[in-house]
Design goal:
By secondary structure, the protein is an all-alpha fold. It contains three helices and no strands.
Length: 65
């Protein structure tokens, strides 16, 4: 099980949501962004945008020390 906390990444294009998910899963960031884009296109865009905004609000920002 992944013990890393799910946070928004500092490696961001908009809010760091996709990058944060990729880092949490240990996947390539570009792959997660591509999967999100494909999912949004096939769901007519609206549900993908709403999910992104909700994750942007609820995911804490990554702390940099």
């Amino acid at each position: 099980m992944n013990k890393r906390k799910l946070t928004r990444s500092n490696n961001r294009i908009i809010a760091g949501v996709c990058a944060g998910i990729a880092e949490w899963l240990g996947w390539d960031i570009a792959l997660v962004r591509l999967l999100y884009l494909i999912l949004s296109i096939f769901s007519a865009g609206f549900p993908g945008v709403i999910a992104y905004i909700i994750l942007w609000i609820i995911m804490p920002e990554e702390k940099v020390f």
